Each structure stands twice: as structure tokens, then as C-alpha cells.
Amino acid sequence: MAQHILSSPFDYDLSSVNIGDSVLLKGYIYTGRDAAHKRLYELASENKPLPVELKNQAIYYVGPCPAKPGHIIGPCGPTTSGRVDKYTPLLLDMGLKVMIGKGFRSKEVVDAMIKNSSIYLAAVGGAGSLIAKCVKESSVVAFEDLGTEAIYRLYVENLPTIVAIDTKGNNLYVEGIKKYKR
Amino acid sequence: MKEIHIDTITSEVEKLCIDACCNIGDDVYNSLKKAMDMEESPSGLGILHQLIENIEISRRDVTPICQDTGMAVFFLELGQDIHITSGYLYDAINEGVRRGYTKGYLRKSVVLSGIDRINTMDNTPAIIHTSIVPGDKLKITFAPKGFGSENMSAIKMLKPSDGIKGIKDFVFETVNNAGSNPCPPIILGIGLGGTFEKCALLSKQALLRNLDEENPDPNLALLEKEILNEVNNLGIGPQGLGGRVTCLGVSILSYPTHIAGMPVAVNIQCHASRHKEIIL
């Protein structure tokens, strides 16, 4: 299992990144969860401009806690990705390159990932305070009315993740469990 | 008759909210440390290490262990010889939640209805389960529940002939279906018996038991050990990415049931097993 340091934007080939590899992420990433995805999807479906350019970008499925005074962001671990699967293939077709979350993805998402050479990274669910330490900047860039579900632009350093699904569609949620099942 | 002013309840609830979300119990902390000895998967070990570090950061900085600070669930044991003064008990609890979630910088995750999904912005209403008990004490237990794990919980009305194998199979099926979504390593609260709704409640109440406490019923204690062992053989592992440690503990609560039925409920709890109590 290799270790990678990946920088966003992802205007480079990700095919050498394999499931089980550990990845430290660096750069600007966008947040978005259920409600924000619904709005992005509706805008894209109607060919209206999106409030953020997704090409070669990463979306992190997260709804942070409010930041305490002196903190950049509140705890911000990943939320269950499968809830946005309905919206994801379209966003991948629009250039989204990296997704960060936790949990299974649908067949439609995996197919769209293969087609668009995208990867899916698992962050550690429940490690919200630890992950917040990796966030160096945070600002709301769209859908402010959604509160914790608004789209934030985060600058992250050394955000620890594991490659769960790679550009070939290999899936650690399937392979990893197979390996340790008794 | 003993009197308790609602302001006391509100201020205690406010403190409970912050304390429970930021200071995870030693039972979970120690159990994660012990799990490091058992885990064989290198990524699993890395994940467990991150979870332990996360607990330490949360305690030090007084920040929530997880951004999903949950729907606010309360179990009240209300002594029948108590008089609550100057207002309504449930209003006092909800006001405590409102203040605690704001002062503690906890995430407000409650929407007004499943259909319109408008955030109530103060994490109310709370879910409150009250038992009337003998005596003049009020015990308030706060157990916030995140929905990564709540969403993966399940109930099934088994037949009496399904027996222990039926119970186990349903538990394994539920855990397998949940996979990575509830943030393993998980803790399983299992309700056996009662009626449909009683069984679901039992499964949640079961989660209030600390991981280092044994089930007082030796038969249930044995069943818990068997289920724990077999769930850990499923290979799901930390975060569902494969490994030895899928589950930190199993807790069963049983209640008499009808001759015709065998309800079983599985309430899945992530490793952020938060619950704090106070007795007034």
C-alpha cells in the first residue's frame, strides 16, 4: 500500500492511485452534503451555471459543527456518501475528480467514476475534531441559507484519507472485507 | 413532596449536552485502545489510532468528538413524589437543549418535518422517554444519536420458532447491510421481546450500558459474547474497510413478549457512544 500526497486541483492523472493506499490531501476542497447536492443537481439539470466550478475539484461530504471562537472550523468528519449517490454521476460528468466521504457508493456512481477517471477517498467517520485540525481556511461560497449544509471552500493540509474506490472501479469496501472475513 | 424548579433542569441539561458530546466515556476510550491489540489490518490500525487521538483532542479542546452531535434523546426516570415547579418539564428539557447546543457550538441537525426539511435551528424538539418510578429523585440521561448509525438500525418481528439462530441471523444481516455507514467499530444495542415499539426502545436503552459492564443475566451475557465474536468475524473492520475490529460491544435488553411473537430490534451505535446522566 503506497502513500501519496495529493494536491488539489487534480489536473493530473490519478490512475496510479490504488485502493488501500493512504492519501494526505492538500489544497482547496469544497464541502457539500444532501441539501447542497440537491441544489447543484437541479441547477445542472436545467443547464444553469453552478455557483462553484467543479472541474478537477474535490467535494467533501461534510456538515461541520459551528466553529468555536479561535477555531477555523468546528469538528468536520465525513458523512455517509451514499445519500448523495443520486446526484453524483452528473457532477462527475461535469468534471468532479475526487470525492471524500464514508461508506458504499452505488453502481451508477462507480461506473461514472471509471468513465471520468475519478477516485473516492474515505476519511475517518467520527474523527471530527482531528480532521478540523487539518483545515487551515474556511469560507462559505454558496447556499449560505443551508447553514451547516452550505458549500464551504476549505484549505486543507495533510487531511488523512484512504483510497476506497480507484479509477478502475476497484472497491476497498468489498475487497477489504473479503480479506478479513472468517 | 420534593420540589424541583424547571430552571435547575434546564441548566443541568445544558451542561449534559456539552459534556456528553465532547467528553466520551473512558469505557469507549479504553475499548478502542484494547482494540489496537486485536486489529490485524494496517489501515484498520491507523484508523483506530486516529479515533483515539480524536477523543484526546476533543477532551482537551472541549470540541465535539463528532460533527454529528445528534438528535437529542433523553431517558427520564421521574420519581412519583417529585413536584416540578414553575413550568413544564419537557419545555425545560428543550430549553436546555437549545442553550447547550448553542453554547457548546454543537451542530443543529433537526428538521421540522421529514417532508419540508426546514432546520429548526436549535436542535429541538428533543426525543424524551419518561418512566415514572418510586421515590423523589429525577434521573436525566442524555444520549445524543447521530444518524449515520441510526439510519442503519432495524427491527424485525420474528416467529417464536426462529429461536436464537433467527435472532443472530437478523443481527448479522443488519450489521452486514450497514457495512461502513455507521462508522465501525460499532456498538450493538439489541432489544428482545415486548411489542414492536417497546422492542425498539429496549434496543436504544441497551446502549446506555457502559462497555465495561456485564449483563446481569448470565444467558444474555453469553449471547452477547457469541454475537460480538461472530460480528467481528464478518471482516467489516474499522470504517468498513476490512479488519478484525467491527464491534466493540453488544448489549441486550429483554422484556416479556406475546406467545405469538419474538420482536428483535438492533440499534446500531457508532464508536461515538455518548451518554451522560445526572440525578437531581
Features:
heterodimer; A: 182 residues; alpha/beta; fumarase; 5-stranded mixed β-barrel; 7 strands; B: 280 residues; Dihydrodipicolinate Reductase, domain 2; 60s Ribosomal Protein L30, Chain: A; 4-stranded mixed beta sheet; 40% helix; 23% strand; EC 4.2.1.32 (chain B); 4 iron, 4 sulfur cluster binding (chain B); Class-I_Fumarase/Tartrate_DH (chain B); iron-sulfur (chain B)
Descriptive notes:
- The complex is a heterodimer of chains A (182) and B (280).
- Chain A has a single domain (23-180), classed as fumarase.
- In chain A, 23% of the residues lie in helices and 27% in strands.
- Chain A contains five helices and seven strands, in the order ββαβαβαβαββα.
- Chain A has helices at residues 34-45, 88-93, 107-116, 128-132, 172-180; strands at residues 3-7, 22-31, 58-60, 98-101, 119-122, 135-142, 151-165.
- A five-stranded mixed barrel of chain A has the order 2-3-4-5-7.
- In chain A, a hairpin with an 8-residue loop joins β6 and β7.
- Chain B has two domains: 2-21 and 65-145, Dihydrodipicolinate Reductase, domain 2; 148-274, 60s Ribosomal Protein L30, Chain: A.
- Chain B has eight helices and ten strands.
- Chain B has helices at 6-22, 26-38, 42-61, 89-103, 147-150, 163-178, 196-206, 218-232, and strands spanning 2-5, 73-79, 82-85, 127-133, 138-142, 154-158, 186-194, 247-257, 262-269, 276-279.
- In chain B, α1 (6-22) packs across α4 (89-103).
- Chain B is globular, with a radius of gyration of 19 Å.
- Chains A and B meet through α4, β7 and α5 of A and α3 of B.
